[in-house]
């Protein structure tokens, strides 16, 4: 017994230090089995659980006939079923759902449903097929008797059927009731199918042209968004310049007496883009005035270089003596210069866009797609701006765009 215990102890392997238990379990188990491909629970598997065989008798099964209620020919079929279910209905009979097709009398047809394009025999044939094939109009069109009656399309059959259903619902409804009448727009359906046929019959060149136009449209939309953003930034700069000048004038005109705190808080709010926003040093301890002259990190390197160049052109020292008044004036000057630099950049962008639009207009005018501009910047017919010829597509049929690009 001691030898067997020792041999069993030598077979077991210890988990190395630093290795997680889950990783070690992936290597091998105690029985050195291969790791499973899928996560499995070994406690409830076929190895441990045995079949529970009882001494009870097996439920008897019987070969018995059955009929399907969906069939009207009375066909008899046979299958195996439990003996306890003998005499019960066919279990799949509950899935035999049929569409309720309305029935009309001779008097109702003559009074309300008469149509010169349809005979009564043709209408009866249509409703008979609708009952047989559960309003599957593609099948109805396939089974339609085109030799005896006039050749009809699927849209014609649908239009006639739903028109009769709506008429019968209006006739038989009690006064004051809210009706949900089915409406079928045959013209819309025809245009939709025509559009689908055109879409299906496109050539590869037309598909490539459409993709190119979609890409150009996206580029135009992005340019439009950029232009709107630039106009907003320009408006912010203009309002910032106006508010700063008004604020300076008000400070110069105001007396040197201390105003109440309420009036000081009622100053007009200056946008963040107004020049440079210097940080306020309100921390405890000793601070240098020259520290208040340092430009914040939000100002880019390009603006800093342009600012230094403008100060050199004005003959202002880049590092003046940091007295209280000089620090305040120097910071205000640099803030105004940055604001001026931003306004110049916005003006240059607007000039560039205007010149680009002029060149584009001249190219379109040479091509003959637009008319010449009058002195007031409008067309001779009264339309303003760059008027591209419209109305070319009015003669074409209006096709509903079913598949959006």
From TrEMBL:
Its main location: nucleus. The keyword Transcription regulation applies. Residues 209-367 form the DNA methyltransferase 1-associated domain. The lineage of its organism: Eukaryota, Metazoa, Chordata, Craniata, Vertebrata. Residues 224-233 have a biased composition (Basic and acidic residues). Residues 90-168 form the DAMP1 SANT/Myb-like domain. This is DNA methyltransferase 1-associated protein 1. Keywords: Chromatin regulator, Nucleus, Transcription, Transcription regulation.
